[in-house]
Design brief:
24% strand; Rossmann fold; binds 1,4-dihydronicotinamide adenine dinucleotide; Ketimine reductase mu-crystallin; thiomorpholine-carboxylate dehydrogenase activity; seven-stranded mixed beta sheet; pyrroline-2-carboxylate reductase activity; binds the ligand O=C(O)C1=NCCCC1; eight-stranded parallel beta sheet; ODC_N; 2 domains; ornithine cyclodeaminase, domain 1; ODC_Mu_crystall; globular
Amino acid sequence: MGEQPAFIGAKVVEKYLDFATLIPLLERALIHFSSGSEGGVVQPIRTIVPVAKYNGFLGVMPAYSKWDDALTTKVVTFYENKTSSEIPSHQATVLLFEPSNGTLKAVIDGKVITDKRTAAVSAIATKLLKPLHTEILCILGSGAQAQSHYQVFIQQFSFKEVRVWSRTREKAEQFAKTVAGDVHVCSTPQEAVTGADVIITVTMATQPVLFGDWVKPGAHINAIGACRPDWRELDDVLMESCVLYVDSKEAAAKESGDIVISKASIFAEIGEVLKGTKPAMTDKTTVFKSVGMAVEDTVSAKLVYDSWLAENK
Ligand SMILES: NC(=O)C1=CN([C@@H]2O[C@H](COP(=O)(O)OP(=O)(O)OC[C@H]3O[C@@H](n4cnc5c(N)ncnc54)[C@H](O)[C@@H]3O)[C@@H](O)[C@H]2O)C=CC1
Ligand SMILES: O=C(O)C1=NCCCC1
C-alpha cells in the first residue's frame, strides 16, 4: 500500500489561498484554457446530475493542466431553497491526483476554493473591462460569493461607495455588518444599481434581478449566478445591448439561461482578452458571464497542496 492521501480542510485552504498569489495563477490558466490544444488544458463540460426531489444538483468538474502538471476533479453540490441556514447552498471537495500514475494525493475542501477562485476571476475580468473612472460598486446578493467578491474587490480596487441589495433587508444588513468597510444597504435592486460603475450579481435567482434599463451606459457587470439553462439573473435588454465576455464559450452557451434564453452572442473569452487576441471594450457596457471552470479549481488546489506540503514535509 502507498501513502494515504492528505486531507486538507477549509481553514488550511483559507490560509494558503491568498488573492495576490492566486490571481496571476488564474490569469495564466485562463490564457491556457483559451489557447486550444497549445494551452494544454483538458477540461470537458461538467456533468450535472439533478436531484429533483430536493431541488439540488451534483456537478463533477475534472481538468488537467499540462502547464501546471496538475490533475483534479471537483465534486460540487448546490441546492435551491436550502432547508437549513447552517448548511451552505454550495458544498464542494477537490480531489488532487498524481498525474504521472493516477494516485490520489489529496482530498481538499472545495468550498473555500470555489468562493475565492470565482471572485478572483471576476476581479481579473473587472480589471480588464471596467470603465476608466469607477466610483460605485454594487453587489446584488449577500451570500458566500457576495462575501468573497467583496473581499477581493476591496483589495484590488478603490471604490468611493459600495452598495448591497438582498432579497431580505435583514440579510443585506447582516452582510454590511460582517464586512470590514462601509457598505450602503439598498431597499431595491434598482436603487442599488442606479449610477453604479461595476455591478456584481451573485444570487440564486431563476428570473432576472438586473434590468438593462437600470444600468449606467459603460458600466461593467460580473454575472456569477444563473448557471442552469433555465435560470436567469440578467434581462434580455441588458444581454442584447452589452458586449458579452465569458470564461468558457462552450460552457456558457450551454449552461447559462442568461445566454441560452436571450440568445445573446458571445464576443470573447476572458482568456482571449488576457492574451491580447480580443479587445477589452471598456467604453461599452460589458458583461462578464461566469459559469465557473474546473481548471480554476485545478490551479487553486495545486497552490494549496504545494503550500501545505512545503510546511508538512
Ligand atoms: N460562476 C461561478 O464560478 C460560480 C457561480 N456560483 C453561483 O453564484 C450564486 C451565488 O452563490 P453563493 O453565494 O454561494 O450562494 P448563497 O446561497 O450563499 O447566496 C445566494 C444569494 O442569492 C440570494 N437569492 C436566492 N434566491 C434568490 C432570488 N430568487 N432572487 C434574488 N436573490 C436570491 C440569497 O438571498 C443569497 O443572498 C449562485 O447562483 C451560484 O450557483 C457559485 C459558485 C461558482
Ligand atoms: O464553478 C463552480 O464551481 C460552480 N458553478 C456554478 C454553480 C455550482 C458551482
